[in-house]
Amino acid sequence: MTRFATWAGKNADAVIALVLAIVAAALGLGVQLPNEDEITNSAVLAVVGLLATSVLRDRARRTPVENEIRDTLRSSSATLDGLSEKVERIDSFEGVVADTKRALEETSVVQVIGGAQVAQVLAEARRSTDRWFFKGGTGTYIRAKTLPECVAAARRERRTLLFRMEIIDPANVTVCEDYARHRRSVAEGTDATGEPWTLERTRKEAYATILAACWHKQRFGMLDIDIGLSRTMTTLRYDLSASRVVVTRDDPRGEALVVDSGKFYYGWVSAELQTSLDQARRVPVEQARLAPLDDEPTVEEVRKLFDVIRIELASEYTDRDVIEIIRKALRAKDPYE
Q1: What is the Cα–Cα distance from 281 to 231, expressed in whole angstroms?
Q2: Which residue ranges does UniProt annotate as crossing the membrane (predicted)?
Q3: In what order do the strands lie in the sheet with 161-168?
Q4: Are 295 and 315 in contact (CB under 8 A)?
Q5: Residue 242 CA to its chain's centroid (Å)
Q6: What is the extent of the structural domain holding 33?
């Protein structure tokens, strides 16, 4: 009974409307009541009052709910703003982590190898490469291994080969003397080829590299080769292939740096070598076709070649000196053996 009373109190307007509806139904069925018109009018007024009371009560109930919803939305908006700031901080932190990871990867890719590994690493770099950039002293190893093996691979695979070299200018006595003096200062006596470093040896080695380049160009038409002669010397040698760059010194037993392609330092070295070559004195190798060289060039052919490409041989060079240049060009000794 208590439960029914509680329910009726909460739904009084609906109970009253139900009673009035029953009364109206009874009247419609013909039940005779005194003062029917007054009762009907009063019932209508009661229903209207109940309707107004229901609307007011509904509004009264709705206002706290709307306020609660508004407060909830306002709180949610503040929470979302805070979450947005946190997401921005997370994105910033992820960027820092990514940059740090990339820096660590880049530094870990610079490998330091011992002198005993240099020949093997250079051999791997020559394998199937379609380009080679070199900057160094006189290019002894270039003549002995790099150029002939790269040309042989390109001929075998019937593809082009891009070759760029920068060596010291053999006609510049000052830079040749500086280079010879430097080589003697870091290694007394003879080197791995069995010869001491003198001014004349330095000049002949550089002349031999130019001769070797022209000789290979005449025998392999898909060799695109360019040579620059520098007025300054460098103590480092750069060998850049399609897969890596190897930085060595003039001591075959010394350590070397190796950087794989795709890393930022590889791109830096490539740009530096091209820029340096552009500033060097260019050898017009394409003119070498005007002075054909035999498989075993003669002294006269070599002299004519250097005249055609406008590289001055030393005036005091005898035929014996030219023969020595030919030997160095085509049968150079590997300094790593």
Answers
A1: 8
A2: 12-33, 39-56
A3: 111-113, 256-260, 244-249, 236-240, 131-135, 161-168, 223-230, 281-283
A4: no
A5: 14
A6: 1-109
pLDDT number for residue 35: 55
Claim to verify: residue 208 and residue 129 sit in the same structural domain? yes
Show the 3-state SS of 189-215: CECCCCCECCHHHHHHHHHHHHHHHHH
C-alpha torsion sign, points 309, 311, 316, 317:
negative
Strand partners, 132: 163
Q: CATH number, domain at 225? A: 3.30.870.10
Are 229 and 169 part of one and the same domain?
Answer: yes
| pLDDT mean values, one per 10 residues, the chain (337 residues) | 59 58 55 54 56 56 64 69 66 61 61 88 93 96 96 95 97 95 84 87 97 96 96 94 93 86 91 96 95 96 96 93 96 85
Rg (Cα) of the chain, in Å, rounded? 47
DSSP-based three-state secondary structure for 236: strand
Residue 27 CA, chain-centre distance (Å), reads 94
| Predicted pLDDT of residue 69 | 67
In sequence order, what are the residues at sequence separation of 6 or more whose Cβ sits closer than 8 angstroms to the Cβ of residue 256?
112, 113, 115, 117, 118, 121, 246, 247, 248, 249
Asked if 105 and 116 sit in the same domain, the reply is no
What is the pLDDT, as a whole number, of residue 39?
55
Same domain for 296 and 156, yes or no, is: yes
Structural domains counted in the chain: 2
Name the amino acid, one letter, at 144. Answer: A
Please tell me whether residues 54 and 130 are part of one structural domain. Answer: no
Q: Which pLDDT value is given to residue 116?
A: 85
pLDDT value at residue 28: 53
Query: Helices 173-186 and 199-219 sit at what angle, rounded to 10 degrees?
Result: 110
Same domain as 180, residue 274: yes
Specify the pLDDT at position 66: 62
